[in-house]
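Hi support team,

I submitted a single chain yesterday and got back a structure, but I'm not sure I'm reading the token output correctly. Could someone confirm the output below corresponds to the sequence I sent? I've pasted both exactly as they appear in my results page.

Thanks,
R.
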Amino acid sequence: MNEFIHIMSLPFLACLVLTGMHAYLGLHVLERQVIFVDLSLAQIAALGSSLALLFGYGMESANSYWLSLGFTIIGSAIFALTRFRKQRIPQEAIIGIVYVVSAALLVMILSRSGEGDEHIKQALAGNLLLVDAPEIVKVFLIYSIIGLLHYAFRKPIVLISRDPEKAFQKSVKVKLWDFLFYVSFGFVVSSSVRIVGVLLVFAFLVVPAACAMVFSDRIKTRLIIGWGVGLFASVLGMAVSYFGDFPTAASVVCVFGLLLLFLALVSSFRSAGERKEPR
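Hi R., thanks for writing in. Yes, this is the structure output for that exact sequence:
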């Protein structure tokens, strides 16, 4: 047990930090019904890192990070500019197209690298077990700044997420706020992908928020539930990884999926029980 705590303490702290920010952003993503925007931005961030590798920079270098961030800002602009009051093409379709093209470009670029397969695997699964304390502190500071900005400008951001039509009626600059939202999202994703990879970033964003929305309509309650789900899945996933000798990120993702299924069944049985109660 002492060895388990020693090995998994820093990965758990990283998951703790990721849960705090991703559970909140996930609520916005589900409200906006752009479920795969995180997966798409994460793939764009990985594309930027792979391009840095082609230019001779290490995947963990500052140049790799800034190139990754630059790519996510471009992606943010695309998503903001394709948001209209009357959508002829669903924005989720545009997000999916961006994801597929980014993934294809990633494969093409890394095919020029002698370690392309390994880097593709790293982009998907990350290196959670190798995270160090300075990286966690850096990510925590970035998330704290973004969290404070979201709190300061919560009214237009929440309004656009929950009732975009009302935001248009009130002459809120939807495209501008969408761009700022996605840019902040890009900062989060660029930092997260380097640690845990594309798959776990998506799981941290969507699963806790989905679990929370099953049980509550209030933002504060949803946040508490989402944070609890994220922390529980992280601990259980790491235990499965350590004691079963499985890859850590993949283990946590699978636990997230099973936990969502379990909570969905609980909610279903609870709803069925409420319908049977006599009035």
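A quick pointer for reading it: Residues 192 and 201 are 6 Å apart (CA to CA). Let us know if anything else looks off.

Best,
Support desk
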